[in-house]
């Protein structure tokens, strides 16, 4: 399968971290606790129940983070809230439980140059 969104997420994460002016080299993933919708598609469920729980709360490098967040169908999280975790010396990504094609993500975020990332 073509997973072109791995490169896209890598570029977007690099752009967002530069904008934050931080120098951490790792990311900690967790699902966004403010999202109250359950996973809706089969791929959402696979990512939520099987693929991502193995790496949640672990420090990952940029490349591993981007690779982990792209589904086999080249879908990415609808949004990712990026914050600094100074206690851990890392970035923290709160990700949506919904994984969608890039076109849907683009429509959802409108003109944002950091899509699907929201800096908190």
Automatic annotation (TrEMBL):
Name this protein carries in UniProt: Uncharacterized protein
């Amino acid at each position: 399968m073509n997973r072109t969104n791995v490169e896209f997420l890598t570029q977007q994460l690099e752009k967002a971290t530069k904008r934050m002016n931080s120098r951490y080299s790792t990311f900690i993933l967790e699902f966004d606790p403010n999202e109250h919708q359950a996973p809706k598609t089969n791929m959402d469920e696979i990512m939520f129940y099987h693929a991502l729980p193995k790496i949640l709360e672990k420090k990952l490098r940029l490349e591993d983070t981007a690779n982990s967040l792209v589904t086999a169908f080249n879908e990415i999280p609808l949004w990712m809230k990026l914050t600094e975790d100074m206690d851990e010396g890392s970035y923290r990504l709160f990700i949506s439980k919904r994984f969608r094609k890039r076109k849907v993500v683009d429509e959802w975020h409108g003109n944002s140059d950091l899509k699907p990332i929201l800096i908190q």
